[in-house]
Design brief:
Helix 1 packs parallel to helix 2, helix 3 (about 80-90) packs across helix 5 and helix 4 crosses helix 5. The longest helix is centred in the first third of the chain and has 16 residues, at about 25-40. Helix 1 (about 25-40) links the parallel strand 2 and strand 3. It is built from eight helices and five strands; from the N terminus they run ββαβααααββααα. The protein is mainly α and about 180 residues long. The strands form two sheets. The chain has a three-stranded mixed β-sheet with strand order 1-2-3, with helices on one face. The protein has a two-stranded antiparallel ribbon with strand order 4-5.
Length: about 180
């Protein structure tokens, strides 16, 4: 239920950290909203991390509450240098420029995808010691399965749009309206 909630204390400060809030059930999210209200009143720092969840009114209420006391930050794709930093962290070693360039091209800087692609490339020997050992080939079964699991977590309308885009459709208002009934 509240496994994504942690209260960190030391002798001077406390901080409330909620991670992966999109996975919390509605009741737990309502509890978090109440705790967030009390944290704000007691000036306890609060950090909430979650994936976008359009249509989730409780998560939207939590964002609104947090946004009253501090700026909301929406993370986008990583810059190429940040892809290199993430790759070095994931691999635990320095990475060369060629790996960073190819990894950025393959992932468009999406952090989750950077991790998935690196894991697949490590497993199949494409990456060795922070360098490309061979040119990346077509995605292997393990990467396809990992990506399928990510796609399965999307809302149905998002999966429909993704399917249309992979079939070669342009991303425009007409497509979005027709595929999502919005």
């Amino acid at each position: 239920a509240l496994r994504g909630l942690a209260l960190l204390r030391d002798t001077r400060t406390a901080a409330l950290v909620v991670e992966d809030a999109q996975w919390l059930d509605p009741g737990s999210l309502r509890v978090i909203v109440g705790v967030a209200e009390r944290a704000a009143a007691q000036e306890i720092p609060l950090t909430v991390a979650h994936r976008p969840a359009p249509g989730d009114s409780t998560l939207a209420a939590l964002d609104a509450l947090v946004g009253r006391h501090q700026p909301l930050v929406a993370l986008g794709p990583l810059e190429e240098a940040e892809v290199g930093e993430l790759a070095a962290i994931v691999l635990g070693t320095a990475v060369d420029d060629q790996l960073v360039d190819v990894l950025d091209d393959h992932t468009a800087g999406m952090p989750g995808l950077v991790r998935l692609v690196l894991a697949a490339w490590l497993a199949d020997g494409t990456v060795v010691g922070g360098r490309l050992a061979v040119e990346p080939g077509a995605p292997g079964p393990s990467l396809v399965a990992a990506l399928r699991a990510e796609v399965d977590q999307l809302l149905p309308a998002a999966r429909t749009v993704l399917g249309a885009l992979t079939a070669g459709a342009d991303l425009d208002d007409e497509l979005l309206g027709a595929t999502t009934d919005l």
